Amino acid sequence: MRYAKHIFRLALLLIFVISTIIIVLRLFVPDSFGKYGNYRADNLKEQMEIPMIWQGTRNDSCIVCHKQNTNKKIYSKHKNVPCMNCHGPITEHVSRDNKKIAVMPALKSWKNCARCHQKLVARAHVLPQVDIVDHLKDQGTSLEENVCIQCHNPHSPKPE
User: Fold this and answer.
1) What is the pTM of this model?
2) Each residue of 92-104: pLDDT tens digit?
3) CB distance 69 to 155 below 8 Å
4) Are 39 and 73 members of one domain?
5) What CATH number is attached to the domain comprising 89?
6) Alpha carbon 24 to chain centroid distance?
7) Which of 10, 31, 47, 158 has a Cα at 20 to 30 A from 80?
């Protein structure tokens, strides 16, 4: 065996590398990893401790204080759109004990409207679709940040 010394060194190096990998994995991979498959089970508790931002898809929280806009909205085509789609998280507006902590933001950008109404070939024609550039040309206006709400009230979106 002419190369026995080299093979022995290579085998030692290989054993060292494999041992190091095993030790590093034991040190840095949490004990709960793999309990539910390729997932760290302790993460579930951590996620539950993060404060909730979205109140869900129902508008019950908003109805209490905003009856006027809610009454407009329930008879409009936007009746099934959650308020938070256009206003953002309610927790930035109302605290857990239902006290107002800030002015409710309103996402007035045409980009927010375009999320649902931009004309796309692949989108089902369930929602009214608008080719925004052509629509604005027809109206004789240009693409400004809040161009949609100049003619449409989001709570009752028929043109005013």
Assistant:
1) 0.54
2) 777 767 777 788 7
3) yes
4) no
5) 1.10.287.3080
6) 35
7) 47
